[in-house]
Fold this sequence. Notes:
- With 420 residues, the chain is an alpha/beta fold.
- The protein has two domains: 1-33, no CATH class; 41-414, 3-Layer(aba) Sandwich (Alkaline Phosphatase, subunit A).
- The chain contains 13 helices and 15 strands.
- The protein has helices spanning 2-12, 16-37, 53-63, 92-101, 122-128, 144-150, 159-168, 211-217, 226-231, 264-275, 290-296, 300-323, 404-414; strands spanning 42-48, 77-82, 132-140, 174-178, 221-223, 237-240, 282-288, 327-332, 336-337, 341-343, 359-363, 370-374, 380-381, 385-391, 399-402.
- It has a ten-stranded mixed beta sheet, with helices on both faces. A three-stranded antiparallel beta sheet has the order 10-12-11, covered by helices on one side.
- A hairpin with a 6-residue loop joins strand 11 (359-363) and strand 12 (370-374).
- Helix 3 crosses helix 12, helix 4 packs parallel to helix 6 (144-150) and helix 10 runs parallel beside helix 12 (300-323).
- The chain is globular.
- The protein starts with a helix and ends in a 6-residue tail after the last helix.
- Bound molecules: zinc ion (ZN).
Amino acid sequence: xxxxxxxxxxxxxxxxxxxxxxxxxxxxxxxxxxxxxxxxxxxxxxxxxxxxxxxxxxxxxxxxxxxxxxxxxxxxxxxxxxxxxxxxxxxxxxxxxxxxxxxxxxxxxxxxxxxxxxxxxxxxxxxxxxxxxxxxxxxxxxxxxxxxxxxxxxxxxxxxxxxxxxxxxxxxxxxxxxxxxxxxxxxxxxxxxxxxxxxxxxxxxxxxxxxxxxxxxxxxxxxxxxxxxxxxxxxxxxxxxxxxxxxxxxxxxxxxxxxxxxxxxxxxxxxxxxxxxxxxxxxxxxxxxxxxxxxxxxxxxxxxxxxxxxxxxxxxxxxxxxxxxxxxxxxxxxxxxxxxxxxxxxxxxxxxxxxxxxxxxxxxxxxxxxxxxxxxxxxxxxxxxxxxxxxxxxxxxxxxxxxxxxxxxxxxxxxxxxxx
Length: 420
Ligand SMILES: [Zn+2]
């Protein structure tokens, strides 16, 4: 509106200087108007679970070295997030509830506030706008981080309830990850056999019947291998690729394994291909879980390996955003895990014992130098985590703010109308 007045003023302006000034003002306010009205049609949110600043640095040093840049770092905007829940040290459930619904809640809560009242999630808001939704993770697809975007339960352990809500309440279009044990009742092994050698504690334990059959009856294509996933057609896709996590989280040399049968970048690519058929757009959440669970085991080698897979997935999203410029891409963590630090190789500097002894040395890529990783805990910490952002609305995310601020900024970027 201001620009119209500006132009009229310029027409009746007398001196050339006045004309230049008013034209400049007009052009500027026109840009402001178009920036404000431009909304992100698509959002791709990456969560490196437990991936604090130091983890990101270690992944960078090991992958591209001191002069290189990770895909997750080569973004124009950065913010810093305070991660506390109703207590200083959050878990993944409360953190994801803060991101998805904008409330601080108790650890273990999924889509519920501190009074155990359901809170609407960003997935539910965008679904009402006609957009599609997708969840991708190397964890159980019903684990805390994905769960808080698309379900409401008092306790994160209720994973079969969460799965049922995905299918019948929030109707998530794309579900790719592990955790088939919660989709099949005891006695029905599913695609991955019960009590496998790599972890004999894993077996079907669903409490809501056969939810894979239920998904198929609701129109989902169900896949259990990478080849089947890549061939799958249609807008509703369920892929379950492990009994539990798609890796085995253990300390180094104790049966630790990070080699998902469908790598995170492939799941990310398929999710984008499937969701982008919706002309109204989509919201995709992609989580790498091993950055947290390997850090709980103070296993730096596989924390870094998992982070490298996350970074490859981010590159796929960035390629998508290049050809779909109305897309917002974010990379953040829900909290830091392990009190991870990067140190010089020095035999006289050792702060821990047992699993929290230093790990490494790791080579800094493209150099002859090394670093070691040390740990202060096998739990989570309360330090801030960074968010790097690119695309439509990315500028909203710079600054230092609470985890609940991610929700309000996402809503603003996508033009979600929040209740007053
Ligand atoms: Zn954790």
